[in-house]
Write a structure and sequence with these properties.
The protein is an all-alpha fold. The chain is built from 19 helices and two strands. The chain starts with a helix and ends with a helix.
Length: about 425
């Protein structure tokens, strides 16, 4: 009997922890908006979990566990406010005022907390991604608060030391507190100014998962999954923002190829050689639907929507030979106008090489030779090597592949580039 009781309690604890993982970000969002302190909001959410672990095994999991946890955290927050008020005033003053001012103040707080806070989670996302923080700090804080990852998990994802990530998160929280930021969604013109920062952070997280900058693994699917999850939350909360939908479309379509990007031996498999039956058709369908919604809202020329349209060209092609490279080249021409950057120019050169031949690609990459942003960027000599290889200039191609291999910090990518160099002969 005791053994069965222990099993039941263990299952209840697992259920509680699963509920908490799902509700954690929303709990912290609502609490941070009230107490204006991220650390305190995290503490209150954790305290609510401890209360649930104590009470739910006896009473059972409530019908609305998220609301129960929020109510428990609210009570703790209000109790804390009362204690702080008591410490701040003499007991005699409290006795005279508690029936008048203090109780009404607490009631006002409770009423405010019970308002329909449909955008509280969105407010947390915008605060974690505030431009006052560096991009690295924004990414780490977003993964911590919204993704629920531990500092150890974030450190491993970005191949950083755990103390470094912990310090980065602590500093980010302090900066938010010192700046007096409200945990709210910006309005009007400020929303338009701040949204790109949020999208940049989400895509930064996704890209680190899709093509790791360093380490032995080419991909880190867990990071992609977190970015997609935050992107879906954002799209659900901002369904009329075309660029939010454009980013979601881009991530869903790109993520559909994750399983095919490496072979059974971990070797990198380039896009034209990927086994397309391994592409996730559900993610492709989701991505294409999000792209259609973005375009219907008039956002076809948004930077993320344009990149999603590029990814869609590959997703729609049943084989590599059916890829519409002419459309891809045209889309890159447009993207270059909307979002000029050396990286866009490099990708445009690849598209033009596939459309108009390797010499056309070489002409375009030669124009990028002096771009400071690409000076130590492995994809530049890798692309030039590919163009030279396809043009039959194998000796020059080999040198370019070897140069690219010396620049990359990712072991899987380095092995692939050296393999290509070997195919060029000695």
């Amino acid at each position: 009997m005791t053994e069965y009781a222990g099993m039941a309690e263990s299952e209840t604890h697992q259920a509680i922890e699963a509920v908490y993982r799902m509700e954690r970000a929303r709990l912290i969002a609502g609490l941070a908006r009230m107490v204006r302190d991220v650390d305190r909001a995290e503490e209150l959410a954790q305290e609510a979990l401890l209360i649930a672990l104590s009470e739910w095994p006896r009473s059972g999991v409530p019908n609305n566990p998220g609301a129960w946890l929020m109510a428990a955290a609210k009570r703790r927050a209000i109790d804390g406010m009362r204690r702080e008020t008591m410490r701040a005033r003499k007991h005699e003053e409290i006795a005279r005022e508690i029936d008048g001012e203090t109780d009404s103040t607490i009631e006002e707080i409770e009423a405010a907390m019970d308002d329909d806070l449909g955008d509280e989670l969105l407010g947390l996302i915008f605060t974690a991604c505030h431009p006052v923080l560096s991009a690295d700090a924004r990414a780490a804080l977003t993964l911590r608060l919204v993704g629920g990852l531990t500092t150890d998990e974030i450190a491993r994802a970005f191949l950083s030391a755990e103390p470094t990530i912990a310090q980065r998160i602590v500093r980010a929280k302090k900066m938010i507190g010192n700046a007096g930021l409200a945990f709210e969604v910006p309005r009007g013109a400020e929303l338009a100014v701040r949204l790109p920062s949020v999208l940049e952070v989400i895509y930064l997280i996704f890209n680190e998962g899709y093509a790791a900058t360093a380490g032995e693994d080419l991909i880190r699917p867990a990071l992609c999954a977190e970015a997609q999850r935050v992107g879906r939350i954002l799209a659900g909360l901002m369904p009329q923002e075309s660029e939010v939908l454009g980013l979601l479309a881009l991530m869903e379509i790109q993520a559909s190829r994750l399983a095919a990007r490496t072979g059974p031996d971990g070797r990198f498999v380039p896009l034209p050689e990927q086994h397309r039956a391994r592409w996730d058709r559900l993610l492709i369908r989701r991505g294409l639907e999000a792209l259609l919604r973005a375009e219907a809202l008039g956002g076809a020329d948004g930077p993320y929507a344009l990149q999603a349209a590029l990814a869609a060209c590959h997703a729609r092609a049943r084989t590599a030979d059916e890829t519409d490279w002419r459309r891809i080249a045209a889309l890159y021409d447009r993207l270059r106008e909307i979002m000029p950057s050396p990286v866009v120019d490099l990708n445009r050169a690849v598209a033009h090489s596939m459309t108009y031949g390797p010499e056309a690609g070489l002409a375009l990459v030669d124009e990028l030779a002096d771009a400071a942003a690409l000076r130590n960027y492995a994809p530049l000599p890798a692309a030039r090597g590919d163009f030279l290889f396809r043009a039959g200039r194998l000796g020059e191609a080999r040198a370019q592949f070897e140069a690219a291999a010396s620049l990359t910090r990712n072991e899987t990518e380095r092995a692939f580039l050296l393999e290509r160099a070997g195919r060029c002969g000695s």
